[in-house]
Write a structure and sequence with these properties.
5 helices, four-stranded mixed sheet, alpha+beta
């Protein structure tokens, strides 16, 4: 019986550094431009690891958009608000005012997570 040693695999992990000031400026610019294009946006909340000061390599930006109205279901709205060429990944949560109010009762943990962030204004 012949034994063949397996080749060791190389690590595919790539650690990147992203400047927090670049992220902050990108979020502010993105949100202001978004408000100009979409009058239904009342406000936004930026939450998650970039706000708590604990981002790791590959951390995305988490933004909740509060809309006055939308004829689409939540998941179908996301593509309408995604940016082009953002420096990191971005997760969007576009809720109407009514949906966001209900979230406080229906999913209080998630609501607290979102509202622990900072307010973005148009």
């Amino acid at each position: 019986m012949r034994l063949t040693a397996l080749k060791s695999s190389s690590s595919s992990v790539v650690i990147k550094y992203t400047d927090p000031e670049l992220i902050k400026a990108s979020v502010c610019t993105y949100f202001k431009e978004l408000c100009l294009k979409h009058e239904e946006i009342n406000r936004g909340l930026w939450f998650g690891s970039w706000i708590t000061g604990t981002p790791s390599p590959g951390s995305d930006v988490d933004i909740c958009l509060i809309l006055s109205f939308s004829p689409k279901p939540v998941r179908e709205r996301i593509a309408d608000y995604l940016p082009d060429g953002f420096p990191v990944g971005i997760d969007l949560f576009p809720y109407t005012e009514a949906e966001f109010s209900r979230l406080a009762e229906e999913n209080p943990c998630w609501y607290r997570c979102i509202t622990s962030g900072i307010e973005l204004s148009c």
